[in-house]
Amino acid sequence: MGCWKNKESDTWTFPTLILCLYGFFYMMKPSEPFLTPYLTGSDKNLTIDEVTNQIFPVWTYSYLALLVPVFLITDYVRYKPILLLQGISFITTWLLLLFAHGLVAMQVMEFFYGMVTATEVAYYAYIYSVVSTDHYQRVTSYCRSITLVAATLAAVLGQLLVSLADVSYFHLNAITLASVSLAFVCSFLLPMPQKSMFFHRKGSSETLPQPDRVVAGLSSNTSLSCQEDKDCAAADTGPNPAQQAQQPEPQHHVLRVLVQLGKDLKDCYSSRKLLYWSLWWALATAGFNQVVNYIQVLWDFRAPSHSSAVYNGAVEAVATFLCSVASFMVAYMKMNWDLFGELALGIFSTMDAVSLFLMHFTTNIWVCYASYLIFKASYMLLITIATFQIAVNLSMERYALMFGLNNFIALVIQTILTVVAVDSKGLGLDIVTQFLIYGSYFSVIAGIFLIRSICLFVSRKCNRKTVRFWKEPQNLTEHESKEQTVTGCATRL
Question: N or C terminus: fewer CB in 10 A for the chain?
Answer without folding.
Answer: N
